[in-house]
Amino acid sequence: MSLDAAELGPFSSTDEKMSDGETCSARILRTPGDNKRRWGVILDAGSSGTRVHVYKWLNPAKAREDADTEHLHRLPKLKTKPEYTHKIRPGVSTFGDNPADVGPEHLQELLDHALEIVPANQVKDTPIFLMATAGVRLLEPLKQKALLGEICSYAQRHTDFSLPDCDLHIQVIPGDTEGLYGWIAANYLLGGFDSPQAHQHGKGHHTYGFLDMGGASAQIAFAPNSTEAKKHANDLKLLRMRTINGNAVEYKVFTTTWLGFGVNQARERYVEALQAEHYTTPHELLDPCLPTGLRTTLAGEVVEGESPDTTILGLGQFDKCLARAYPLLGKDSPCEDEPCLLHGQHVPAIDFEVNHFVGVSEYWHTTHEVFEMAHKDKAYDWATYQRMVKDFCSEEWDDIKANVAAKKWGKKVDEKTAQEVCFKAAWLIDILHDGIGIPRVGIEKSAAGISYNRTKEIGAHAKDKGFLDPFQAVNKIDDMEVSWTLGKMVLYAAGQIPPSGENLPVGFGPNLGLGPFQEAGSNYNPVPIGDDDESWSEVAEDMAEKAHSRSTPGFLLFMFTLIFLFYIFRKRERRLRLYRGINATFRRSRRPGSPRKGGRGFFSSSKLFGRSSGNYERVLEDGMQAQDFELAEADSSDDNEHSDSSEGSRIGRTSGLATPKMNVVNFDSASYFDGSSQMAAQSVGLGLGMHQGGLSAMDRSGLVVRTESRERLQMLGAGRRSRAGSPTRMKSPLMTPLEEV
To answer: Residue 720: CB partners within 8 Å, gap ≥ 6?
Structure first.
């Protein structure tokens, strides 16, 4: 199930090509205006492959200049697109024995992809990170060090991306750090940070818990309630970020990882347990977690006919599968630091009255890839999901194969997916309900005695109350993938904002300060904002995104017409060229000797086209979106590694467990233009980015201008007019020519 902007929260090119195949000339046009944006590149080096992500956001100085009071108290707004992401196989860990080959045979393709997206004049100021998980963690220390060193050296030699510190930018991150980044990403997209008042879960709590599961490990990250936070203060991480106005916001988060609890390694442990049991025949293991009649090798390869090796025969008994998988949770393992959840690992008590979790990666794929047709747009509930899995797994394997061929469950479900889903579903249910303790919606009640409607859709209540189900699987929120890489880049972008008061570092570390504080690694190199117009391609791109979010043909036509008018009229030189062209046409069409018509025509002498025209410049920027909730469809990736786990404040220094008070100040600047549905939802009947309480860069006519001072325009003998703004220049919300005085 995908969460979308209209009800959930904020957001999606390989290169600067647009969807219809924009040419490289548009990329050249784009460059001059790009000093208003910052860029970041991050490579997720997992076990099965490496994925490059490119993100962009407004230059902090520009964001602060244009933000209204509300947006000043928000984090930087990052953007990306599906085309900004590119994955190649295999993973970098396969180069452990030959590190010299990792550059030309692996990294170069990813670097080229990023260089096609980031404007050339921004590359030197764009940071690049490679964060390795999964396979690289399993390499011997010497091989790991040699591989990471070669990666950093190659990137420094072959690109101009900002890479000043190899240890900071190229590293293996532990699972708990990966979980923290994922927690940042989820809350950033859901709106828990920027709109806490819309996500009050009770007891001053407004953030969401985060669950991630890949092939080899699983992570959990959440902010405990205030009682548990005090009791287990030494177990928490202190996370500090910075809002647009430079204020520090802090959160106290618990995060941990369970190695061996990813779906692939859990399956390996399960097969080992089967082997340890008595078989009915010397070469056959009976497995209730495989569809009826399916026979495989111990490694999971389908066997046709007889085999001399030990095989596994599917029984299709899902209830027994759940029971067989349960011991793998390690609930009976010794717990040295109470309380514990899985395998004796300490986790503070979870208050499901205020802790609501989102699950990504395998939590999404296992609940949606096969069962999406019947389960999409519904909040996860144990009874419905278990019934669907049970019905599926009881089918004969031959029937399942036929249904796969007929695309019954969609084009992304192949025989391998269908073969593995029964065990994966059992493992997920065991982890969620018997391991972590997520209430079985519709069956159990939470600790506070609140029952949940098991068929309730998030969209029915999310706008008013936020996401209140105890668990929900997600893949994308407002078309942006919930990835730990986003969390890392949000932290970096927040670190670029100069502090408004005490210079507290942005990053994370032990809550009680008993250890190193890992800073975000942000650079403060100023990027001149400039006075030049933003490029046509950038304007078209942003306006098209906003128009698309409105989803109405009439609005689309209006927006593209508006873009065309901006393009034609935004510069005086273009107006004059158009005027001369039209006048020349009229002169050619007028018969010789025919009298001229009296009066001044629109094109001949109006202030819009004539020499006395004021020098107008468009001032149109991206907007900061508010966060709402909505369910929507999202495409699933064709692999299960969407995170590194596939290794298988408030204002000032306050805790993130309390709702911040917004100090409203006068901010004499036009707010961002934002045509998103979120801003419209928060506006009171104004639409198109207008909202109460502050100036907007968009009036009802939809046009924005910047005027030059009258005195400057009337200077005689001063040569060509300067484009520099007058000290008395002010922004006008109306596209109206200057009146004569």
So the answer is: none
Which residues 6+ apart lie within 8 Å of 627 measured at CB?
Answer: 8, 9, 10, 189, 190, 191, 194, 195, 198, 678
Q: Please tell me the predicted confidence (pLDDT) of residue 469.
A: 82
Please tell me whether 694 is known to bind a ligand: no
Phi, psi of 100, deg, nearest 5: -65, -20
Q: What is the pLDDT of residues 89-103, one digit of tens each?
A: 999 999 999 999 999
Return the structure tokens found at 77. Answer: 């707004």
The sheet carrying 471-473 orders its strands as 471-473, 357-361, 209-213, 217-222, 248-259, 237-242, 507-510, 518-519
Say if CB 665 and CB 39 are below 8 A apart. no
Name the β-bridge partners of 365: none
**Other C-beta atoms lying within 10 Å of the C-beta of residue 595:** 7
DSSP 329: G
* Residue 625: Cβ within 10 Å count: 29
Annotated ligand binding at 46? The verdict is no
Residue 601 annotated in ligand binding: no
Contact indicator for 340, 418 with CB cutoff of 8 Å: no
Domains 2-259+475-531+625-646 and 262-341+390-440 share a fold: yes
And the tokens for 191?
A: 């709106």
Residue whose C-alpha is closest to residue 565's, from 523, 595, 536: 536
pLDDT per residue as tens digits for the range 663-680: 433 334 333 333 343 433
Whether a cis peptide bond, with omega within 30° of 0, leads into 339 is: yes
Q: Is 363 exposed, middle or buried (0-12, 13-18, 19+ CB in 10 A)?
A: buried
Q: Write the CATH number of the domain with boundaries 2-259+475-531+625-646.
A: 3.30.420.40
67 is in an annotated binding site: no
Q: By C-alpha distance, which of 662, 494, 696, 733 is closest to 66?
A: 696
Residue 207 buriedness (CB in 10 A; 0-12 / 13-18 / 19+): buried
Q: How far apart are CA 662 and CA 633, in angstroms?
A: 34
What confidence score (pLDDT) does residue 196 get? 80
CB 506 within 8 A of CB 495: yes
Residue 680 CA to residue 116 CA, distance in Å, equals 34
Nearest to 80 by CA among 3, 189, 178: 189
Which of these is catalytic: 178, 369, 481, 538? 178
CATH architecture of 262-341+390-440: 2-Layer Sandwich (3.30)
| Secondary structure tally for the chain: helices H, strands E | 25, 22
What is the three-class DSSP state of 269? helix
Asked whether 630 and 2 are in contact (CB, 8 A), the reply is: no
Residue 413: name the closest of 472, 362, 361, 372 by CA: 372
Mean pLDDT of 332-349: 95
Least confident residue range of 252-261, 264-273, 497-506, 527-536: 527-536
Question: What 8-state DSSP symbol labels residue 739?
Answer: P
Name the residue with higher pLDDT: 619 or 713.
713
Token pair 């050249």 in the structure block, residue: 28
Residue 292 carries which DSSP code?
Answer: B
Is 447 labeled as ligand-binding?
Answer: no
Q: To which residue do tokens 């706008």 refer?
A: 463
Question: Rounded distance, CA 536 to CA 523, Å?
Answer: 29
Tell me, yes or no, if 396 is annotated catalytic: no
12-39 as b/e: b if 16+ CB within 10 A: ebbbbbbeeebeeebbeebbbbbbbbbb
Sketch the domain layout of the chain as residue ranges. 2-259+475-531+625-646, 262-341+390-440
